[in-house]
Amino acid sequence: MLTTIHTAYTDTRANDLAWALGREPMPSLATLDLELADARVQLRVLGASHQVLLDSREGSCSETVACMAGGNTPLPLGVSKRLGNFEYEFAARVESLSAGSFAGRAQELLALVADHPHGLAGLFPGDPNAFTALLAQRRGGQVHWRTWHAYPRERRLVATRTRVSGTREPEKSTPVGDRANAKCDVTFGS
User: Fold this and answer.
1) 3-class DSSP state for residue 12?
2) DSSP annotation string for 49-96
3) Are the CB atoms for 172 and 184 separated by under 8 Å?
4) What count of other Cβ atoms lies within 10 Å of the Cβ of residue 78?
5) Confidence of residue 62 (pLDDT cuts 50, 70, 90)
6) 0.90 cut: is pTM over it?
7) Is 156 exposed, middle or buried (0-12, 13-18, 19+ CB in 10 A)?
8) Pairing mode, strands 39-46 and 18-21
9) Average pLDDT rounded to a whole number, residues 43-70
């Protein structure tokens, strides 16, 4: 889904981005609610970049990458940590591009996200290459999302990649005679 944001973006430099886990929902300019099997994911474009909210039977997770005042971690290159029942992995990279390369890459990413059923892109006024884009998907027992933040004045593109997997409760054994009537339960933590 591609949407035009009717307010100026507040993160105008890639170096101003910070990363945080566990923040409450911040005011969003555009959202996309997704049901990915037993996980609910909300992709949120903020005036200051992005927030992803994940909720499943195993718990919830909130990731924010934005310009945030006080007490936040500068954008890390990578994070791997346990969050309750989740294994959380995050990676970020910043690309500096030439003017022509930046415009081409920005439009390529916008086209990818705009046409994807699990994608959200917010275009900011003033430059057709100023955007925040998010794309989520589920692979097995993991939820993945990627984000892109474009900074046309600097010709920099910040890309993030996140993977969240849960833990599975021990499987219950089903007596051989009952297997024909057994239900298949899909859990988030495969």
Assistant:
1) coil
2) EEEEEEEETTEEEEEEEE---SS-EE--SEEEEEETTEEEEEEEEEEE
3) no
4) 10
5) very high
6) no
7) middle
8) unpaired
9) 90
